[in-house]
Amino acid sequence: MSEWIVSGLACLALAASFAGLFMLRRFALERTQLREQVERLQQQLALQQQSITGLTAGAIGMDRRLRRTEATERMISDRQEIIENQQAAEQPYSHAIRLVQQGASAERLMEELGLSESEATLLVRLHGLRETA
What we know:
The chain is mainly alpha-helical. It has 3 helices and no strands.
């Protein structure tokens, strides 16, 4: 009977060995699959990092261009305001000069444009038609 026990234990040990080998093989396969999955994830991560780096560089460049554009817009706006102010200041006199060049008198300039007598007289002297002898 001891042979039966030894044979039974040997069979049991053999079965346990096969089960162990089977489990070892299964773990090795899972380990390989996990390594492949980790490699794929690392590649995806690297691609995403490159994309983020590219987007960041693009955003920085766009921010610089936007700042330059805003500065240019402010400068143009300031220039336009200066020109408009100059034109507004010159406009009554421009109209008066045109009238004087068309033969208007100082009295007409005072009546129509509200200029003072000295302003109207000066404009007529500077821009009036000159009589030739």
